[in-house]
Design goal:
The structure holds two protein chains of two kinds. By secondary structure, chain A is mainly α. Chain A has a domain of 195 residues: Orthogonal Bundle (MetI-like fold). Chain A has twelve helices and no strands. The longest helix of chain A has 38 residues. Chain B has seven helices and nine strands. In chain B, α2 crosses α3 and α2 packs parallel to α4. Chain B is α/β, with parallel strands linked by helices. In chain B, a hairpin with a 6-residue loop joins β1 and β2. Chains A and B meet through α2, α9 and α10 of A and α2, α4 and α5 of B.
Chain lengths: 296, 266
Amino acid sequence: MRLVSPASEASAPDALGTRLAGLDTLEIPSLRRPPRLRRIVSAAWPKVVALLIALGIWELVVLSGWKPIWLLPSPLTVFGELWQQLVAGQLIAAVAVTLRRAAIGYGLAVVVGGAIGILVVRSKTLRAAVGSLITGLQTMPSIAWFPLAILLFQLSEMAILFVVILGAAPSIANGLISGVDHVPPLLLRAGRVLGARGFAMYRFVILPAALPASVAGLKQGWAFAWRSLMAGELLVLIPGQTSVGAQLQFSREFSDAPGLIAMMIVILTIGIVVDVVIFSTVEHSIRTRRGLVDAA
Amino acid sequence: MTVLARQPEQAVSTAEVTTPAIQLVAVTKVYGRGPDAVIALDGLDLTVEAGSFVCLVGASGCGKTTLLNIVAGLDAPTSGTVQIEGGRPTLIFQEAALFPWLTAIENVELALRFRGVPAGRRRPEAADLLDRVHLSGFADKRPHELSGGMRQRVALARALGQEARILLLDEPFGALDAITRDVLHEELERIWRDAGLTVLFVTHNVREAVRLGQRVILLSSRPGRAVAEFPVVIGGERRIESPEVSALAITIGQQLSEQVRRHASR
């Protein structure tokens, strides 16, 4: 009995390629992802249930009569108020102003934080000088900057942006610095063997390798920027200009509890939506691409 | 220390002039200073002829990574001279140092970019290189989606993309299973012959060294020094399980054990 078929003898020069192809097929696991709809449903239902439970507890506290109804309104009243503000257009106007400030302030913080991060990474002296200062700034409550900001810029949007930048930039810089610090030495050696030097080393090896930590810094920076912005809008009321923070402050002054809670829900929602829609998505896609997500 | 004499039929004939691709003379590398100083390499002499395949074997602490770093130009010797002919060598690491944010083909393309290949020609050339290591079907996979052996082949394709004439390998197959390793031995041998490369292959697996090398050089440990050299004279197709490979591996293995034993009595 022939154990070797004529066909495989004929293709002898390519035998190595065939064996490699066989090994490769065995090595690569064939994973099939569940359908998109099922993935969305399975990711969403715990969140929906948690939200319903929270609303239920709120309603129970209201029903218990712990506080009078005009101080602690029920969820239905608050969402009714929110709907009315939405159709009247005042909510959209306020949110538009706030989001514009957030975009400008955060955008400038990314530029400032990124520039500081790169300078500190490149220079040992600069790192010794300001490295720990950056971390120190991160722990400083942003509200403590406002007296100085108002002194410097009066009650203007500049004062708010100033504090937003100071709140967010240190986290962004720190994320970049720690990302560069934790680049695996093997990748640096590989880059040098390939002939990467100076700027090319940063552009093609160090910065891409530092991306996950940098995104974590950007995400934390956003949280700080959003908090600073809300503090700023409560403190720095600019005459004739509406904003989410200003609306919150007016509601308190008029003892309008439904309007106040409605605005708090808006603030929370924007914070969560930006975090989930932008940062978590980017973070997850980076982690997936680099194989840092457990497939199981 | 016995240094086996080259057998007459293996001796280089005077007609073909072999220029050394790598020549190290009395290379010493010391890390640190004073009483804490560690001598990684101590007066190491090494000559690798152009187009030859030389394996270095040694136990831990023989300074093989230091040696490769020096030859690759990543590190400078404390004293001694290093002469490299034919441009910068390339180095393949123990674990494939692929960039995890790039696909297989993009990793190869990056080497082409650093070599100065114009943008339009990179993609087809990278595809050809992947084809040479039999990975055409996996161009768009990311490193984590590939097996260890496949990652080393991408690293090999990337190294070929640099068009370096000298290929240095630092225990490249140490972490692979035996079946994959055997196939990759053939693959590396084929690429070495086809491309006419000079290969310096470091391993602590004596059989692997005898399977692949034309010469096997034994290094002592702490400090690293070349203590013996073995020409591998085995005709025909060589396999890791060939009796001739085993026989020479046993001889080299005994000397390696001797080197290791010397450290027990210290």
